[in-house]
Amino acid sequence: MGGVRAPDRRAEPGPVISVEQPLWRALTGYRVVTLGYAVALFALGYGDYGRPLIGAGYLAVLTAWTLLTLRRVTSAERCTTRFLALDLTMAVGGILLSSLADPAGRVGPTLPSIWVAGAVIAVAIKSGWRWAAFASALVGVANLMEDGHFSRSALHNVLLVCVASIAIGYVVEVARASERTLARALRIEAANRERERLARDIHDSVLQVLAMVQRRGTAIGGEAAELGRLAGEQEVALRALVTGRPPDGAAPPPRSEPGDAPADPGTAGSTGEARDPDELDLGALLTLASGGPGQPPDAGPRGRVTYAGPGCPVPLPAATARTVAAAVAAALDNVRRHATGPSGEPAAAWILLEDEPEEITVTVRDDGPGIPEGRLAAAEAEGRMGAALSIRGRMTELGGSARWISVPGQGTEVELRLPRQRKGARR
């Protein structure tokens, strides 16, 4: 009986890339560039200032502040509320000092010039559009006070900074909400993938044993029948657990339904070798599954399986080859359990392996009565996940697909496709 494996850590979602980080990097560059711009404007208009030493002193302090706090504007964690308050104070103070440095109003721009927009944008990225509106209003009031007569250009500059900062703050809030939604979706996807893996392993081991105990107990009768009944109840409860559906007190489902997989998927062949020690020959594994060379003497019902494939090895990563072979073994077990030939004898089965440049295709066909329309979906709804998990689930994890083609009275064909460029993916 196959055991349940340890949780696959590779199913855990990777870290979500923050959309804020590029904004912080851009802000860092903006502060440096606009500082150089403000210093250059002051140097060009130095002779027009009535008190140039006031301007020179402020710009010296602003230069030191900007360079010493570059790391503060590289992430939301480092950009603290205290820093933002001091940064806004530097911006507002520079605006108000402009009228003292240029009492005649001969120089147009304020001392910090467009550097002040960086302080407001930092608030927008850190705290969202509401605090950005407050910061831009504070800077706007300082600009209007410095201008004195509320000119059209001053109002234009104030509105421009206000609209830009609010827009950036809103975009950041939306991006953060999207990141949280994406991270939650990735966690749910990883949890569902792990749940499917555990359900598949349980189906291939514990559920098979419980079903066997129930059948044998019912056949023997007496005290064994009671044991079989209890095993059946536990099977129903366990199926409800692994499929996420409440049992609703339903009686145990019929024991022989399409889609159940073998108790030990490893019996599909675990000794096939390829030239690379990390690879296995899929053809060798399928040969063992068909009852070819190397098959143990008690292979039993699998003896009526015919294998056809390429004359050369079909190497795949070991885990991928074993997973495909396990899916094939599950399909063969369905034939053994549920298909009979025209005369009532066990149906014959054929395995065809096709090695193409773009993909590998394995086809499992039988000459049984076929699967009634809608039976696979009904079996999955009842919690019998053989086809959904043991076959389709395995192929989906590898990036491949599984398809059933069945015509009543003409047998069933299961087609497993594995793209070569994605072999081994999502395991």
Tell me what the structure shows:
- By secondary structure, the protein is α+β, with helices and mostly antiparallel strands.
- The protein folds into 3 domains: 20-178, no CATH class; 206-243, no CATH class; 265-422, Heat Shock Protein 90, CATH 3.30.565.10.
- It is 54% helix and 9% strand.
- The chain has a 5-stranded mixed β-sheet with strand order 2-4-5-7-6. A two-stranded antiparallel ribbon has the order 1-3.
- The longest helix has 52 residues, at 152-203.
- The radius of gyration is 36 Å and the shape is elongated.
- InterPro entries: DUF5931, HATPase_C_sf, HATPase_dom, Sensor_HK_TwoCompSys, Sig_transdc_His_kin-like_C, Sig_transdc_His_kin_sub3_dim/P.
- One of its GO terms (molecular function) is kinase activity.
- Keywords: 4Fe-4S, Cytoplasm, Iron, Iron-sulfur, Kinase, Membrane, Metal-binding, Transferase, Transmembrane, Transmembrane helix, Two-component regulatory system.
Gyration radius, in Å: 36 Å
**From the helix content, strand content and strand pairing, which structural class follows?**
alpha+beta
Largest sheet: 5 strands, mixed
Cα end-to-end separation: 22 Å
Beta-strand share of residues: 5-15%
Helix content range: 40-55%
| Basic shape | elongated
- Can you give the mean pLDDT? 76
Order of helices and strands: HHHHHHHHEHEEHEEHHEE
Domain module tally: 3
Counted by DSSP, the helix tally is: 12
The total count of strands amounts to 7
Strand order of the largest sheet: 2-4-5-7-6
Q: Pick out the low-confidence regions.
A: 1-16, 248-274, 293-303, 422-427
